[in-house]
Amino acid sequence: MIKALGVILLSLAVASHASARTYSYADAHQHYVDFLQQSQGIEALVQAMDEAGVSSSMLSGLSVVKKWDANEPKRPIYYMGDDAALYWYSLTDVMVARAIQSLPPLQQRRFHPFITGFNATDLNAIDHIRRMLEWYPGFWQGIGEVFTRHDDLTALTYGEPGRANHQAMDAIYALAAEYDLPVLVHANITSTRMPEPLYLAEFEQALAMHPRTKIIWAHAGTSGAINRRQVLPFLENELERLLGRYPNLYVDLSWSVLRPYILDQQGRPSPRWLQLIKSYPDRFMLGSDLVGTFTPLKATLEEFTPLLDALPLQVAQRLAKDNFLALLPKR
């Protein structure tokens, strides 16, 4: 009886300690615009960051824009809103640069802009990246989100499907290593209906061929479209194998990997994921993956609280902030 009471009191004490934690965040994955290249604006983003306890944020545009086709009676509001295609849109990088540079210097330093406005299957894409580095010297701190395998988005986008190991990406990975720029890559581990790691070899080849390039795997290879159709029983095993083999691999834990993988239906953290993060405490980071609308930022990041509270405090703070900042080029 006394022993049982002691266990209960200890559990209550641990729970009380965990719930009292507060975290400072560095958002590792955020888009300034949506799929129509529209945004609430940089001032709205700064306000949302202040309310959410986000001290700094990665910020990129979106490399594609949804076409409003003449055959569609209503303007789409999302890339899956109708059957019209998407096309590549390089101006998105200039929009990000203009927005950040409109802020006072102290606020500008809170942002870590990534170049994204290129077609990852175009051998000329490297020219756009070099042009952005030349036009905005010392400004860019990463590359991405690079769209390669991306289920419905890939199917709706004009042209050749992207691959993490596409020839056009080789020059980009090499340039990233030269400038010490991390590369955020969206590379689904499989398609929406194949219960096997269909595309994993493409991503793994990129890791193997470019060991000096810091590659961040967006959503750990998952996506919302995959989650709606299947759960991937091989995900954790493959992720653990890749982390053990490739020290240049980092993992973005933004929304689509949170459920049903990291948290169960009751919101409890998976012991397997807790062990993975504790085994590689410097390789994971959190991102909101918001697209142009920033009001949900606080609520989005707070969804990760059960995971953070279940980790040792030092590991939790690395996950929430420090790991992403450590990847950025040293200035």
Automatic annotation (TrEMBL):
Please, which domain of life does this record's source organism belong to? Bacteria
Signal sequence span is 1-20
Domain Amidohydrolase-related intervals: 163-323
The UniProt entry, under Pfam families, shows: Amidohydro_2
Q: Where are the transmembrane segments?
A: none
SUPFAM superfamilies in the record: Metallo-dependent hydrolases (SSF51556)
For this entry, the protein name equals Amidohydrolase family protein
Highest lineage ranks of the organism?
Answer: Bacteria, Pseudomonadati, Pseudomonadota, Gammaproteobacteria, Oceanospirillales
